[in-house]
């Protein structure tokens, strides 16, 4: 990992081919030391106060890089980091060429259940590394050569908290439900199996149970628990 | 077809009349304004039952029709506060039975979404619905409005009102169309160190509220606190909306609900939409808050698809989520 903030100029990165413009950042395909590399560039959000925007971009870049490297060290399938430039909000990392789980599910691939299982397995590994992802949706899961890779740790936190872990499960479930509503329960069930198989059933079940509680805590849920109900 | 809609979920008793051919033809609104504190449901319900009769008469006379011309009675059966909902439901049931008109159950949140789509003419948007009780980022997928993101604790309107109350800026919370927190923030500047909580596509505001109240108690400048509270609250909900736009690839964004008239939130969403290459519009000010017209409009859509309810079974549902409602009329235009 290289850290030399002041020597780099953002303009040269912005010439690389744009692969995707997300809410948070631009993903560009360039090269780093002769290999293809992804440049994740956190772009300015001009609808925010400048101080807030700079603070958020700096801290999110730095934290994402740190967390990615911890996940990698713990054997999670994530892109390798080549370089980090927090002051301009840039991370240079391995290019993982594949299809997102979201697209795979939309196209109704027969193997989608298997990959949902593997996504559960990767999330279990992430949680075992003391990390929570916090944006664990099907758009952030990439399938490459029959393996599942997790990307975009932009909102990740260090946590072994049951509540925080359950949020990841909740996010995955809702992403599946919202974009693939009709077969969502089967897809989620495979994910749940993968997760529990690799985290252990006691802990796993507890976290899944909590994710259900989080769902019910949302406003205006019929079965929501309230303090005053017997 | 002509439908009358009754809204009584929070502090507005609204009656609206919507004509399939002529659009919005008549309405009446009676707002309950507390002297101090928040809304006491029982007192509001009392007020509603006093004004209900006049509100209905006014709306009908403005529409220049007789009650016999109506093809149905729509009523918001939830979500909202029980005592108020019961007043609206009772009135609607009575009208339905007495004049032999079909009774149509309407979800209040869905009505906010439908009036926004109707008035902005945006057909398939990402919708940010923010009010005193709701902060929801939603869009239509596969038969229903799906909730992509929402607040994990308190709603945006509730955050602003509660903070105003805790630091003695209100009530009233709205002065000449501006929220008191906005007015107070105009002279402020940005402070560092406030919690900015976005989890995936959800926001959380309770930590922000506690932090802001604590700073006020410690003697920091109230203008600065208001400025920062508002900046963080609006930025985070805009960011969540931006994520939904990026995730779904939709090209239209609408803001609806009671907070939709807010100037700064509108500015932020305009800039965000530009960044995402999407077009943005807020629901027109007149129909941002609770009103009967949105209930009538939604009821008309439902009636055309045969959705009605037996008056004896028209129970209120205080926690009726928008993603529990099937939307068969989504692609139809009136």
What is the topology?
The complex is a heterodimer of chains A (230) and B (334).
Chain A: H1 10-13, E1 17-21, E2 25-32, E3 35-42, H2 50-73, E4 81-85, E5 90-94, E6 99-100, H3 101-106, H4 112-128, E7 131-132, E8 141-144, E9 147-150, E10 157-158, H5 162-179, H6 184-199, H7 201-217
Antiparallel strand pairs in A: 1-2, 2-3, 3-5, 4-5, 6-8, 7-10, 8-9
Chain B: E1 2-7, E2 12-19, E3 23-31, H1 41-63, E4 72-78, H2 82-99, E5 103-107, H3 108-120, E6 126-130, E7 135-141, E8 144-150, H4 156-166, E9 174-175, E10 178-179, H5 180-185, E11 198-199, E12 202-203, H6 206-217, H7 222-248, E13 252-256, H8 263-276, E14 279-282, H9 292-304
Parallel strand pairs in B: 1-4, 4-5, 6-13, 13-14
Antiparallel strand pairs in B: 1-2, 2-3, 6-7, 7-8, 9-10, 11-12
Helix pairs in contact in B: 1-2, 3-9, 4-6, 6-7, 7-8
Q: What does it look like?
A:
The complex is a heterodimer of chains A (230) and B (334). Helices cover 44% and strands 20% of the residues of chain A. Chain A is globular, with a radius of gyration of 19 Å. Chain A has 230 residues and is an alpha+beta fold. Chain A folds into 2 domains: 5-94, Phosphorylase Kinase, domain 1 (2-Layer Sandwich); 99-217, Transferase(Phosphotransferase), domain 1 (Orthogonal Bundle), CATH 1.10.510.10. With 334 residues, chain B is α/β, with parallel strands linked by helices. Chain B has 2 domains: 2-112 and 288-324, Nucleotidyltransferase, domain 5 (2-Layer Sandwich), CATH 3.30.420.40; 123-286, 2-Layer Sandwich (Nucleotidyltransferase, domain 5), CATH 3.30.420. In chain B, the strands form 4 sheets. Chain B has a 5-stranded mixed beta sheet with strand order 3-2-1-4-5, with helices on both faces. In chain B, helix 6 (206-217) runs antiparallel to helix 7 (222-248) and helix 7 (222-248) runs parallel beside helix 8 (263-276). The chains are: A alpha+beta (230), B alpha/beta (334).
